[in-house]
């Protein structure tokens, strides 16, 4: 967890140093498993994320996101499993409408980064519990809409380490942006 914090801090300081305006958004997330691998070990995921955004131009900004998801337990005859995922990503965000003082309107995002995951298996028989951990490279395209301080968005989360290039889960984020509305 320290590595995640340090990575996020470095991304934030880098963006803040090169950009005109910076703000933070905090969001609740819902993730629906899409890949067969993830559907076998996880139900619907719930969690949250913190995103730092710094503008390069009136349309384009750099973003850095740190998030955590805990998926519902999945059970079958032989075992039950719990899946957790953390995200550390950086990328860009493009607004369709020219930004004045505060961002608004339709936007498209593209991020890449790391996704450390953990699956804990608990067996019905006398087998010992087992935890499998893996870190994967992620690519995340998304779309959303900035309405004042509220930012609903949708992303496709690709985990390139888990079963190749397929949509790992569908992610819905509803965030509150701490914007500085002063001129």
Structure description:
- It is a single chain.
- Helices cover 13% and strands 61% of the residues.
- It has 183 residues and is mostly beta strands.
- An eight-stranded antiparallel beta barrel has the order 1-2-3-5-6-7-8-9.
- The radius of gyration is 18 Å and the shape is elongated.
- It starts with a helix and ends in a 5-residue tail after the last strand.
Write the layout of secondary structure elements.
Blueprint lengths: L1 H17 L3 E12 L2 H6 L3 E11 L4 E12 L2 E2 L3 E17 L9 E19 L6 E17 L3 E10 L7 E12 L5
Antiparallel strand pairs: 1-2, 1-9, 2-3, 3-5, 4-5, 5-6, 6-7, 7-8, 8-9
Features:
2 helices; 183 residues; elongated; eight-stranded antiparallel barrel; mainly beta
Structural class: mainly beta
Our Rg estimate from Cα atoms comes to 18 Å
State the helical fraction: 10-25%
Q: Count of helical segments?
A: 2
**Terminal CA distance:** 37 Å
Helix-strand topology string: HEHEEEEEEEE
Quick recap of the structure?
This protein is 13% helix and 61% strand. The protein is mainly beta and 183 residues long. Mean pLDDT is 85; it is low at 11-19.
